[in-house]
Amino acid sequence: MDEKILSRITVIDMTEGVAGPYAAMVLSDMGANVIKVEREAGDWSRPADHVNVDGEANAQFIALNRNKRDIGLDVSSDTGKQILERLIARSDVLISNYQPGVMAKLGFDDV
Predict the structure, then answer these.
(1) Cβ distance 63 to 107 under 8 Å?
(2) In order of start, what are the domains of the chain with their CATH numbers?
(3) In terms of pTM, does the model score above 0.90?
(4) Nearest-angstrom CA–CA distance, 36 and 38
(5) Between vectors from CA 107 to CA 103 and to CA 110, what angle results, nearest 5°?
(6) How crowded is residue 45: how many other Cβ atoms within 10 Å of its Cβ?
(7) Which class for 23: exposed (0-12), middle (13-18), buried (19 or more C-beta within 10 A)?
């Protein structure tokens, strides 16, 4: 059997840009089940110009987010928070590169 070392680990990836998505990509390459949580409008690094998010993705975004499942959530809404809470409860790792205080503002400072 060719099971990867992190195949039993679930990661919630709440990162944007390069460093965070890269870290989560490495975990996914090692077999982790990575779920990328994007804002409803999409990750700002998705389009080539980092402005016009319309479902299109550039090569860098695709490469850094390979092997991940993806969900768009409004984590400031009650429904979005409930979904994220369920995802976090079923995961082993949460990665976020939000500015300090953002997770607390969203109500996730104790995760």
Answers:
(1) no
(2) 10-105 (3.40.50.10540)
(3) no
(4) 6
(5) 75
(6) 20
(7) middle
64's tokens: 């850094």
pLDDT string in tens for the chain (111-residue length) = 578 999 999 999 999 989 999 999 999 999 999 999 998 878 878 776 666 656 567 888 889 999 999 999 999 899 999 999 999 999 999 999 989 998 898 888 876
SS3 85: helix
Q: For residue 85, report the phi and psi dihedrals to the nearest 5 degrees.
A: -60, -45
User: Taking a C-beta distance cutoff of 8 angstroms, is the pair 110, 88 a contact?
Assistant: no
